[in-house]
Design goal:
This is CID domain-containing protein. One of its GO terms (molecular function) is RNA polymerase II complex binding. InterPro entries: CID_dom. The protein has one domain: Serine Threonine Protein Phosphatase 5, Tetratricopeptide repeat, CATH 1.25.40.90. It has five helices and no strands. Helix 3 runs parallel beside helix 5. The longest helix has 20 residues.
């Protein structure tokens, strides 16, 4: 949760957290649930950065053909909009 709350609007921050999420994919559902909870309580100006993070994670998962991760994030993004 602290990592997601500390996300900044920089490419390095988004990519760094994306890599961390990918490295901890065994906890992916908890990460997705936490992302959605934090997104909902975040100020509008931070929400775009949260979506950049989701996009980066999904793009990497698609390249690796990780359907589970893609589906988890797709469901969360759908719930967020």
């Amino acid at each position: 949760e602290k990592r997601l709350e500390g996300l900044r609007d920089t490419q390095e921050s988004v990519q760094g957290l994306s890599l961390w999420c990918q490295a901890n994919k065994r906890h992916s559902q908890a990460i997705v649930d936490t992302w959605l909870r934090i997104l909902r309580k975040s100020p509008v100006e931070k929400r775009l950065t949260m979506f950049y993070l989701a996009n980066d994670i999904v793009q990497h998962a698609k390249r690796k053909s990780d359907v589970t991760i893609v589906n988890q994030w797709a469901f969360a993004v759908q719930k967020a909009t």
